[in-house]
Amino acid sequence: MKSLTLDRASFWYAATQSPALRAVSLDVAQGEVVALVGALGAGASTLLLVAADLAPRVIGGRLEGSMTRRDRSGIVLPTPWTQISGMAFTVWDEVAFGPANLGWPTHEIARQVNRALERLELLPLASRDPATLSGGELQRVIIAAILAMDPGLVLFDEPAAELDAAGAAMLWQLIRVLAREGKAVLLATSAVDALPDVADRVVWLEDGAVRAVGTPDLLADGAACDAGLGTSIATVWRAGGLPAPYPLTVAHAVRGRP
Amino acid sequence: MTGVRLHPFTLLTIAAVLPALAWILPAPDGAAATLVVALVLTLTPGAKLTPGASPGNASLWSFPGWRPGLVRLRTAVVTAAPFWLFLLLLHDVPTTIAIGLRVTTMVATFVWLVAALDPARLVEAMVAAGWSASVAYLLAATFSAVPVLKARAQRIVEAQRCRGLSPRGGIPARLRALRALALPLVLSALHEVDERALALETRGLVPGIRRTPLAPPPDPAAERAARWALLLVCLVALVRRFIVQPFS
Amino acid sequence: MIAALRLEEVSFSYGSVPALERVSFSVAPGERVALLGRNGAGKSTVVRLIAGLQRPDEGTVWVGDWDTRDCVPEQLAWRVGSVFQHADQQLFARTVRDDVSFGPRALGVGEREVERRTDRALEDLDLTAHAGHHPYDLPPALRKLTALAGALASEPALLVLDEPTIGLDRTLRARVTRALLDRSAGSVALLVITHDLTFAAETLERGVVLDRGSLACDESLAALLGDVTRLEPLGLAPPPVAALSAALDLPGRPVRAADAAAALARVARGKPVP
Fold first, then answer.
1. Which domain holds residue B148?
2. What is the ipTM of this complex?
3. Residue C89: its chain B contacts at CB < 8 A?
4. Torsions phi, psi for A203 (to 5 deg)
5. Which of A178, B155, C89, C123 has the fewest Cβ atoms within 10 angstroms?
C-alpha cells in the first residue's frame, strides 16, 4: 500500500525563479525504504519537506503537481539542536514533548517514549538534561522523539551525520526494523556506502529532477561513480580501470575478485 | 532546585505585583520597600544551604549554594545602573531616587523571574488551565530565550577569541568585540527561527489538539489564595493612592 | 625539531566528571593526525585545551614552546587555527571575504599580507566566486568551508579541526582534503577530529584514538584502519576501501582510494579477471 505519492511535483521556494524540484514522480510503500542521493542542492532536502507537508504549507513557496499521503509523517531534520523543544529538563520529557502534543493518554505516551528510548539505546540518558548532550547523543534523542509519535511515514534528512560508527550502525539497523514493522521510510543521505544494506530503492536526484531510480545496484553504475555517488568500492573498481559491472560492496568484490 | 517550588502562576503574579506596587506606593519609602523584596528574591532560587557546609567560616563567594544568587543580584544591579546615570542627568536627586528605585525593582524582579520560572512547568500549568499548547509554548519560549542566547553568545565569543579577537582592552576594542558578537548572534538566531518553526510543527505543536498535561505542577489552595491576596493588595494600594489620598 | 603540539600527561574534568586522563601525544610540523574515538571520548575537550579555552587540571599542553596555561585564546590564535563544530553559525562579517580576512587582520599583519592570505584561502577552497556574498546567503555546507577558510587565512603553524566534513558531500570533502594536504606540505601541522574514516584515510597519516578519556592507540592510520579486530572495540568501523584491501589482501594494504585503485589495476593485469 502506498504511503506517499508524488505526481509530477515541482516546487519553488518563495522569491525564487527556478524550481528546487522539477516534475518529480515518486512513491514510497509501507514497509519500504527509499533513499534519495544526489549532490548538495540537488533537491533531496526539499523533497523531504514537501513529503512532510511542510513545503509549501509552513515555509511558503509554490507547489505544482500533487503530493498525497496516507499516513501521518515525522521528519528528522539535519540539525538536531534546532529541533529540541527547549521545554524539557530531561531526555525523557524531551521525547514525550511530541506525543503529549498529540493529546494521547498518559499511559500511551509513557509506552511510546520508553520504547523509543530503548530502540535508540537512550535509556541510560533518560534523566539527563538535553542541554548537556553531545551532538551525536542529541541526534539520537531527536530520532527517538520523532519515532515516539509513531508516524506511519518516517522522513530522515542526513540522520547519521552526527553519529559515530556504532551509532550509525545502530540507526541503519533500526531503519530496516521500522520497514519490517510496516512503516514507509524516505531518507536523504550522503552515506552511500550504507545504502546497499538499508535501501530497497535508490532515487538519484540531479538539479531537482529524478535522474534515475533503481535498486541500490544503481550506486555501482559508472555514471553514478563519476557523479561522486557510487559506493566507495564501485568507485575504486572503476578508478582502477577494471571492467564493469562494478561490485557494490566488499562482499561483492570478494565474490568477483580480480 | 529549591526546597519549595511555587506554582508558575504564583511566580508570574509576584513578578507583576512587585513592580506595580513600586509605582503605586508613594516614593521613596514604598519603592524602597519593593526593591528590598525584589533584591532578596534574586538571592533565593538555588540559594539552598548544602548540608555539611557551614556559612559561618566560609566567605560568601566561596560558598557554592549562594553563588548563583549573588550572580543574579549583581546582574540586576549592573543592568539597573545606567538608568540611574540617565535619571541623574535629567532630574533632581529626589526624582532620580523615586524613579530609580522603581526601575531597579522592575529589573530585579525580571532577573529573578527568568531564573525562578521553569518554562516547561509554565507550559504544563497553562495547558492544565485550559490554554492552547502553542500559546503556552510561545510565552514560555520568551522566558527560555535568555539562557539560550547567553549560551550561544558564549560560544561565539569563544570562537572569535580563538581567531584573535580580544574582548579586553580599551573602550574601542570592547565596542568592536560587541559588534562582532551582535551580528552572528542575531543572524544565527533569526536563521534558526525558520528551522525551529518546522521542527515544532513536526513535533505536533499545532493548534486544534488538546495537549496531554504530563506532570501539571500542583497548585495548592493556599497558593491560589495568596495570588488573589497579592492582587487585592495591589488594588487596595491603588485605591488608597489615587482615590483616598490623591497626589499627597 | 620542536613539536607543533605536545600533550604531556594531560588530565581534565568538568566538575566531578572526568573527561581526559593522563593523555600524551604530540604532532610534528607538517604531520597530519586524526583524533578518533566514540561520541563522548574526550576529543572535543582536547580541542578546547589546545585553543586555551580550558586549562588542564594536571599535565601540560605545549603549542610550540608555549605552555597554554600561560596564554589566553587570542594569543594562541597566533599559532593555532581552530575550527569548532558548528563553526558555520559563528560567521559574522557582511561578506565571505571580510569574514575570511578577519583572522589575519585581528593578528595585525599588514594590509597587503591580509589580502594575499585571504585570496589564497578562498582559492584553496574554491570560494572565490562567493567572496562577495553574505555568509548567511550561502548553503550550510559552503558556510562551513568559509569557516575553514578563515582558519587557513590566519596561516597558523597548527590547524585543529572538529568534524570538518559533517554536511559536506563527496566533492566538497575532496576540496577540503586537497586544501589540507597542500597546507601540510607547507609544514602546517594538522589535528583533525572526525567520525568520517574515509575522509581520514584520504587526508591524514596518523591516528590517535581516545577511549573514555584515555589514550587507546597512537599509530599509522593505514595500519590501524586495516585491522578490524582492533577498530571495533574502539567504537570505530573500517572505511570500505580499507576493508576491501584487507578482504582482497591487496599488496601494501592501501587505505586511500587512489592507492587501492592502482593496486587493483596491478593485480588485475597480473591475473586476468574470471
1. 133-207
2. 0.88
3. 152, 156, 184, 188, 191
4. -115, 120
5. C123
Residue B32 included in any domain: yes
Mutate one of A59, A75, A82, A111 to test the B interface: name it (highest B CB count within 10 A): A82
pLDDT tops 90 at residue B54: no
> Domains in chain C, ordered, with CATH?
5-230 (3.40.50.300), 239-274 (no CATH)
Domain boundaries, chain A: 1-72+151-214, 86-150, 217-258
Q: pLDDT class for C274, splitting at 50, 70, 90?
A: very low
**C102–B165 C-beta distance less than 8 A:** yes
| A193 close contact with C: CB closer than 8 A | yes
> What is the pLDDT averaged over residues B133-154?
82
Tell me the chain A residues in contact with residue C257 when contact means C-beta distances shorter than 8 Å: 232, 235-236, 239
Q: Which residues contact A243 (CB under 8 A, 6 or more apart)?
A: C273
For cell 592501501, the residue is C254
- Nearest neighbour of B211 by CB, restricted to A93, A101, A131: A101
Higher pLDDT, residue B217 or C182: C182
Using a CB-CB distance cutoff of 8 angstroms, which residues of chain B are in contact with residue A77? 195, 198-199, 202
Co-location of B90 and B156 in the same domain: no
Q: For B184, which residue in chain C has the nearest alpha carbon?
A: C92
User: Which of C155, C207, C161 is closest to C186 using CA atoms?
Assistant: C155
Residues B3 and B114 in one domain: yes
Instruction: Please give the tally of structural domains in chain B.
Output: 2
Q: Above 60 in pLDDT, residue B58?
A: no
DSSP code per residue over chain A: -EEEEEEEEEEE-TT-SS-SEEEEEEEEETT-EEEEE-STTSSHHHHHHHHTT-TTTTT--EEEEEEEESS-EEEE-S-GGGTS-S--SSHHHHHHHHHHHTT--HHHHHHHHHHHHHHTT-GGGTTS-GGG--HHHHHHHHHHHHHTT--SEEEEESTTTT--HHHHHHHHHHHHHHHHTT-EEEEE-S-GGGHHHH-SEEEEEETTEEEEEESGGGGGSHHHHHTT-S-HHHHHHHHTTPPSSPPSSHHHHHHT--
Say yes or no: B235 contacts chain A, CB-CB below 8 A. Answer: no
Chain A residues inside the 8 Å CB shell of B209: 101-103
Query: What is the third-level CATH fold of A1-72+151-214?
Result: Rossmann fold (3.40.50)
